[in-house]
Design brief:
alpha/beta, 10 helices, binds cytidine-5'-monophosphate
């Protein structure tokens, strides 16, 4: 079997991260959650007391990232997701992060990457591309449960507003906007639980590989 690159894209809280992790474990492939790159870039700026739209500082922060020193807990907070989508709209930051992502995808066996532009920009030649979606309401519900599980404050209406704002910003930006690649298979997880969604994703990969 030749190398298998799986590109998973989709909006915030669509379940793409969970699916990517599960697929990677199933096929024994390395997994990169590319949202963490933008989150870590934003986090570095905030820690230095710098503005999120300071292009030079943001590019330097992106260049300085190392995949091994991610403080997951802090990076995955709501605030950091919001901040990430601001730095992610800067073309210079995106350009800086392309190589790192492509190198990750270039390993012998293949890889699973999840984000917004994996199928369209980072790995246009990926063997399998899945665009994971779910209604904004379902995504907000899941995010609220996830945050509550981690002991974070989680008001459903606030989270729904957040999710919609992030969709809007990610879809409207001029560089690498959130949209399915022409050859992506769309998987709507609104009515699926995790097992159901994983089964559906596995079927898509098996058909496409
Ligand atoms: O997926 P996650 O919610 O962690 O992503 C945080 C933000 O990073 C997104 O809202 C998006 O603006 C940005 N992002 C991106 N391209 C990716 C992954 C994430 O623009 N490939």
């Amino acid at each position: 079997v030749s190398r298998l690159v799986i590109a998973i894209d989709g909006p915030a809280a669509s379940g793409k991260g969970t699916l990517a992790r599960r697929l990677a474990a199933h096929y024994g492939l390395p997994h990169l959650d590319t949202g963490l790159l933008y989150r870590a870039t934003a986090c570095a700026l905030l820690d230095e007391g710098l503005r999120l739209d300071d292009i030079e500082a943001a590019v330097a922060a992106a260049r300085g990232l190392s995949l091994t020193d991610f403080d997951d807990q802090r990076l995955r907070s709501r605030e950091m997701g919001e901040s990430a989508s601001i730095v992610a709209a800067l073309p210079e930051v995106r350009a800086e992060l392309v190589d790192l992502q492509r190198r990750f995808a270039a390993t012998d066996e293949g890889a699973v990457l999840d984000g917004r532009d994996i199928g369209t920009v980072i790995c246009p030649d990926a063997r399998v591309k899945i665009f994971v979606t779910a209604s904004a309401e379902k995504r907000a519900q899941r995010r609220a449960l996830e945050l509550a599980g981690r002991g974070e404050k989680a008001d459903y209406q606030n989270i729904l507003a957040d999710v919609k704002k992030r969709d809007e910003r990610d879809s409207a930006r001029s560089v690498a906007p959130l949209k399915p690649a022409d050859d992506a298979v769309t998987l709507d997880t609104s009515e699926l639980d995790i097992e159901g969604a994983f089964g559906a994703a596995l079927a898509i990969v098996e058909k496409g590989r």
